[in-house]
Amino acid sequence: MQLSNDVILIAPETVKAEAKHLFWTCNPDESLMKSINEFGQTTPILVSETGGEYELVAGHARLAALKDMGLPVLARLVQEANELDKGLLYLADNEHRTVDDGMRLTALRYFASQVDNKTLKQDILPRLCVKPKSKDAKLLLGWMTMPENWQGHLAAGNVPLAAGSTLGRMDEADLNALEPLFSRFSWSRSNAVNTINWLFETSKMNNQSIESTIQDAGLNEILSQGLSPKDAIARLTVAAKAIRYPEISKLQDTFSKATSELTTGTRWRMNQPNNFETGGAELTIQVKDAKQLAAAVKDLEAMAGMSTWETLWKLGEQDD
After folding, report:
1. What is the pLDDT of residue 317?
2. Residue 236 burial by CB count (10 A; 0-12/13-18/19+): exposed, middle or buried?
3. HSE toward the beta carbon, residue 150, CA cutoff 13 A
4. So what's the pLDDT on residue 272?
């Protein structure tokens, strides 16, 4: 492979830009358009020439921007480049971009068709800022064996890379049953991993499918309520935890109701510090001056006389 030293001027309409090695294509952003308007094209695109036709090797956003503006394109010719060379050049040309796990997976899928597994781990992964022996490397390579629809959910940011450890242990039927939870919402790492683990563990404990576990947990009903993504995810997470830890969930529900009765109208906050291994609660408050402190003491004295405390004392008892 060789890069010519000469820069040529070509019409953007003459450049084909649909090749598979252009795996991170996106529309030109506002900053690029502003830069071209102010300074012109500062960096040539890379093209190869075959039979008098140009194929884009790198510079998709620049090409699209200049085409929209009706301007000619500065380009350097790439000679004698195979599909691996084009992918590596494209990767190098995009090294300034912030890369997420979905983008890494997309790139790995391209290079997996060009190199063996050893090269993929030792050469390509470091180019994607992933250490070959890291946990992320193992997860990314595991995701490459997942169904394409699930890879799409990772690329869309709906499911985190870390969820792959458990998802990879599920069969096709379980993955299909689980998919509606992640096809519409973008989950945080902790909520997604916890929910998937709780459902998977419950299904194994009860010797039933993920579909049956989801049904028993009432997750389909939650999905059908038309809730906002934030509210839906919150309720789905609570329901998944409840079916995995039913006793603790019941205790938490009782605790929440009791603490609400005790603290409503005050600045006091309460939590259960040891997962209900014992009864009781931890009280916290923030005060900024003597007036707030006096009010807090007064509220606490009023709270101390409420019968609701008896409910909290009993939550840690074994026979509750």
Report:
1. 65
2. buried
3. 23
4. 83
Q: Is the backbone of residue 47 left (phi > 0), alpha (psi -120 to 50) or beta?
A: beta
Q: 104 pLDDT exceeds 50? A: yes
> What does 32-44 look like in DSSP terms, one character per residue?
HHHHHHHH---S-
- Nearest of 55, 161, 60 to residue 105 by alpha carbon: 161
Dump the DSSP string for 88-145: HHHHHHTTTS---HHHHHHHHHHHHTTS-HHHIIIIIHHHTT--TTSHHHHHHHHHTT
Residues in the chain: 320
Is residue 228 within 8 Å of 184, Cβ to Cβ? Answer: no
CA-closest candidate to residue 57, choices 38, 82, 34: 82
Q: How many CB atoms lie within 10 A of CB 287?
A: 13
The amino acid at 143: W
Q: Which residues of 52-62 are buried (b: 16+ CB within 10 A; e: fewer)?
A: eebbbbbbbbb
Q: Which two tokens stand for residue 265?
A: 């109208």
What amino acid is encoded at 212 in this protein?
S
Residue 110 amino acid letter: Y
H/E run at residue 50:
strand 45-50
Q: What is the pLDDT of residues 50-99, one digit of tens each?
A: 888 999 999 999 999 999 999 999 999 999 999 999 999 999 999 999 99
Q: How many beta carbons lie within 10 A of that of residue 211, not counting itself?
A: 15
Phi, psi torsion values for 198, nearest 5 degrees: -60, -40
By the 10 Å C-beta count (0-12 exposed, 13-18 middle, 19+ buried), 273 is classed as exposed
Residue in this structure with the two tokens 């781990």, named with its chain if needed = 121
Instruction: Classify burial at 25, counting beta carbons within 10 Å of its beta carbon; exposed 0-12, middle 13-18, buried 19 or more.
Output: middle
